[in-house]
Amino acid sequence: MFSTPKTLAKTNNPTIRLLDKTKLNYLIIAIAAVVLAILLIILICLLFRLIVSERIKLAIILLFSFLFYAVISYLIKPDNY
């Protein structure tokens, strides 16, 4: 699924399976997009459902903003190679 004929032709050993970097990057970006969308949906649902003070809502927004940034910085790495 993540190999191409070009990457499979690079080795004669049948036990070694080389992966195509482009296809793997697309999978990682798709996973990151789903995780980030779920984080935002959870935040919105929490803010609508909770009946708490404005300070607690602000703390929840700050917590999810930090978590959102952490997930983005962990999953999506710049291509510096």
Please give the number of β-strands.
Answer: 0
Low-confidence stretches: none
Report strand %: under 5%
Mean pLDDT: 80
Outline type: rod-shaped
Number of domains: 1
Taking the alpha carbons of the first and last residues, their distance comes to 24 Å
Q: Could you give a quick summary of the protein structure above?
A:
By secondary structure, this protein is mostly helical.
Structure description:
- The chain has one domain (5-75).
- Helices cover 68% and strands 0% of the residues.
- It is built from 3 helices and no strands.
- The protein has helices at residues 5-8, 21-49, 54-75.
- Helix 2 packs antiparallel against helix 3.
- The protein is rod-shaped and about 65 Å long.
- The model has no long low-confidence stretch (mean pLDDT 80).
What keywords describe this structure?
single chain; mainly alpha; 3 helices; 68% helix; 81 residues
What is the strand and helix layout of this fold?
Elements: H1 5-8, H2 21-49, H3 54-75
